[in-house]
Specification:
The chain has 2 domains: 224 residues, 3-Layer(aba) Sandwich (Rossmann fold); 65 residues, 2-Layer Sandwich (Alpha-Beta Plaits). The chain is 30% helix and 30% strand. Strands 6-7-8-3-9-10 form a 6-stranded mixed sheet, with helices on both faces. A hairpin with a 2-residue loop joins strand 9 and strand 10.
Length: 309
């Protein structure tokens, strides 16, 4: 079954004019679509255009041209429907210290004009594991709890799409796991998630598909596994009985690095060489192999490769 688009942008362009110098294209004719029900990663170095993109969705930045469609609503024709179809969880923690989570969500529901009988405050607090803190002052919550409260706040109007902007910035490892589990749970319940992150392993672990932006351009958009398949170089580390240098004339692009603790690191292109070939090169010169470990590379390698231009 073809899933419908939760979000579709076509030729989305945003230009900031600087008085002194020329204009800066924060988004340059961007095309992408996010499918209903997926966890979609939006990655890019600082200044890539991610924040501009999110601000256009949130209605705080006006695009120059292009089309934005959220959950079937066109941004130009139905800005209000667009805003009600999307919940944006900001990067900065901006909570009133003297409100409790429950009060805060009730207040937010009021701002959205949701009638008392239609509010789902308790359900949302459960979803983000804050039911025990429902009546505590916001200032007494830990950093991770505050972060989850922001997610709750963005969900008050039950948007089908939730945008998380760097959700684990400044959150420790344990709380990060907790937050990811919360997000996965929301996704299981049908919420489409768009996630921006600086943490490559976070994107790798969470996202079905990933778009990488650089300087306002879409560099790539693919499934996470396809992106990982792009890693050209493999790295293998051998522990040997003693180091013997290998004649570099016949290596055909394989690189050997020797460390004083009887360790040999080998870099090679996975398309060109097989591991057996490397093992036999090591054995042929008389080194005995005691241990082998590999480093498959990760999304960070792809990211660096794609954005270094």
């Amino acid at each position: 079954m073809n899933k419908k688009n939760a979000l579709k942008v076509e030729k989305l362009t945003k230009i900031y004019s600087k008085k002194s110098s020329n204009e800066v294209k924060a988004l340059n004719s961007l095309n992408l679509e996010v499918k209903e029900g997926e966890i979609f990663g939006l990655l890019g170095p600082n200044g890539a255009g991610k924040t501009t993109f999110l601000n256009i969705l949130a209605g705080t930045v006006i695009k120059n041209s292009g089309k934005v469609n959220v959950w079937g609503h066109d941004l130009d024709q139905n800005p209000r429907q667009v805003r009600s179809s999307i919940g944006i969880v900001p990067q900065e923690i901006n909570l009133d210290a003297f409100f409790s989570p429950k009060n805060l969500l009730e207040l937010q529901a009021g701002l959205y004009g949701i009638a008392k009988k239609d509010r789902i405050t308790d359900t949302i607090l459960k979803l983000v594991s804050l039911e025990k803190q429902a009546n505590a002052y916001a200032r007494s919550l830990s950093g991770g709890m505050k972060r989850r409260l922001l997610i709750a706040k963005a969900m008050v109007h039950r948007p089908p799409i939730l945008v998380l902007d760097e959700p684990t910035a400044g959150v420790d490892v344990q709380l990060r796991q907790n937050l990811w589990n919360n997000v996965r749970e929301l996704n299981k319940q049908g919420v489409t998630i768009i996630l921006t992150t600086h943490l490559m392993y976070e994107a790798e672990e969470m996202c079905n598909r990933i778009a990488i932006l650089n300087k306002g351009n879409l560099v790539t958009l693919d499934t996470t596994s396809n992106l990982l398949d792009r890693i050209k170089t493999k790295k293998i580390i051998f522990k040997v009985n003693k180091i013997i240098n290998i004649d570099s004339n016949h290596l055909n692009g394989i690189k050997f690095f020797y460390k004083s603790n009887n360790q040999v690191t080998v870099l090679y292109e996975r398309k060109k060489h097989k591991i057996d070939e490397i093992i036999s090169k090591i054995k042929n010169v008389g080194m005995e192999i005691n241990d082998i470990s590999t480093d498959e590379g990760d999304l960070e390698d792809v990211f660096i490769d794609l954005t270094k231009g």
